């Protein structure tokens, strides 16, 4: 069952990186300046977080969503292009590690348009992303998802 995601104000993004804001899955409305997404990713990298961007602009279905995730996160070749495989990849990030990251940040842009075009797929994606964030909340390494 999909619960509404909390909104993360743009100004709270640094709090994710210093853990004054709990990691998790958030709706995020970055400032209109397109460079803000880039700045957030650069700040995450500077804080030694492993991060990825998946643009969802023009995505209207599950296949497009999973393809955007695969491309943006550079998912491994064994990724099965289904919800269970995405969940597996997000809860076992050994394939994504580069050294010893301080945290993980996954930013998806174009979320509102995707959710409007494919509400059932967006609900399932929300469940998968929220479950992954919940899985990581019980571990020492934070995991955050921003749906912008």
TrEMBL record:
SUPFAM superfamilies: Barstar-related (SSF52038). Coiled coil: none annotated. Pfam families: Barstar (PF01337). Residues 54-147 form the Barstar (barnase inhibitor) domain. Belongs to the barstar family. This is Barstar family protein. It comes from Streptomyces alkaliterrae.
């Amino acid at each position: 069952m999909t619960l509404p995601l909390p909104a993360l104000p743009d100004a709270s993004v640094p709090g994710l990186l210093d853990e004054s804001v709990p990691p998790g899955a958030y709706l995020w409305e970055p400032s209109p300046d397109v460079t803000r997404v880039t700045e957030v990713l650069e700040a995450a990298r500077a804080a030694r977080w492993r991060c990825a961007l998946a643009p969802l602009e023009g995505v209207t279905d599950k296949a497009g969503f999973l393809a955007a995730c695969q491309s943006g996160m550079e998912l491994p070749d064994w990724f099965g292009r289904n919800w269970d495989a995405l969940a597996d990849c997000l809860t076992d990030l050994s394939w994504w590690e580069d050294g010893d990251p301080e945290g993980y940040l996954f930013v998806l842009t174009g979320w509102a348009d995707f959710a409007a075009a494919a509400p059932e797929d967006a609900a399932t994606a929300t469940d998968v992303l929220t479950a992954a964030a919940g899985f990581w909340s019980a571990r020492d390494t934070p995991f955050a998802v921003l749906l912008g």
